[in-house]
Amino acid sequence: MRLLKVATCNLNQWAMDFDCNLNNIKESITRAKEAGAVIRLGPELEITGYGCEDHFLELDTVTHA
To answer: Residue ranges of the CN hydrolase domain (predicted)?
Structure first.
C-alpha cells in the first residue's frame, strides 16, 4: 500500500487582490512541499478571493484569474 501526504490550506485571501492571492498560493505550495506533501488542496476561489459577487460579470475577472 502506498501512502500519500496531503496538505490542506486555509489561506487569508482578499477579493480581487490577484497578486497577493497568488503570492499566498505559491507560499502554501512551497510549505506543503517542504512538509512532504504530494497533494495540496486549496480553498474554493483561492485565486480571485472570496466575495467577488458582481465582479464575475466583468470580463477582466476571468482574464486575471
So the answer is: 4-65
Task: Give the list of residues 6+ apart from residue 39 with CB closer than 8 angstroms, or none.
Answer: 4, 5, 6, 7
Nearest to 23 by CA among 42, 47, 51: 47
Rounded to two decimals, the pTM is: 0.78
- Tell me the three cell numbers of residue 16: 480581487
Task: Give the cell for residue 3.
Answer: 501512502
Are the CB atoms for 22 and 47 separated by under 8 Å?
A: yes
At 52 the pLDDT is 66
* Residue 30 to residue 54: CA distance in whole angstroms: 32
Which three cell numbers, joined as nine digits, stand for 2?
A: 502506498
Report the distance separating Cα 50 and Cα 6, nearest Å: 23
